[in-house]
């Protein structure tokens, strides 16, 4: 049976992976936008409008993806929180023991 700490660690890892994925996608799109900017220098005004529209579309796509990833990360954390609350309700004494142990460790670490 997974402990509350492992559930939170798993949720944290998944959220971090989602954030890393979002960062990689943003970097990729930034590179693509840089390529578009280079292409703009070689084209006339008509092509410039087309490229500007493409850049706006890409910006909107990045915004939509970032919202989706942030929402997925939020849902994961909320699910982990709900699972943790359920486990605490099932075994309150165990939860109190874990909390006391973590508090003791935190006190030891901050004492130094």
Q: Name the shape in a single word.
A: elongated
Averaged pLDDT: 82
In sequence order, what are the helices and strands, one letter per element?
HHH
* Beta-strand residue percentage: under 5%
What's the alpha carbon Rg, rounded to whole Å? 23 Å
Largest sheet: none
Structural write-up:
By secondary structure, this protein is mostly helical. The chain has one domain (4-111). Helices cover 94% and strands 0% of the residues. It is built from three helices and no strands. It has helices at residues 4-42, 45-90, 92-111. The protein is elongated, with a radius of gyration of 23 Å. The relative contact order is 0.12.
Short key terms for the protein model shown above:
elongated, 112 residues, single chain
Question: Would you summarize the structure shown here?
Answer:
This protein is an all-alpha fold. 94% of the residues lie in helices and 0% in strands.
Itemize the secondary structure elements and their pairings.
Elements lengths: L3 H39 L2 H46 L1 H20 L1
């Amino acid at each position: 049976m997974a402990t509350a700490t492992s559930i939170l660690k798993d949720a944290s890892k998944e959220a971090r992976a989602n954030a890393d994925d979002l960062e990689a996608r943003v970097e990729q799109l930034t590179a693509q936008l840089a390529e578009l900017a280079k292409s703009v220098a070689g084209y006339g005004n008509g092509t410039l409008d087309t490229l500007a529209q493409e850049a706006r579309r890409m910006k909107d796509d990045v915004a939509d993806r970032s919202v989706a990833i942030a929402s997925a990360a939020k849902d994961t954390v909320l699910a982990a929180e709900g699972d943790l609350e359920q486990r605490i309700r099932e075994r309150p004494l165990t939860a109190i023991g874990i909390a006391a142990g973590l508090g003791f460790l935190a006190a030891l670490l901050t004492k130094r």
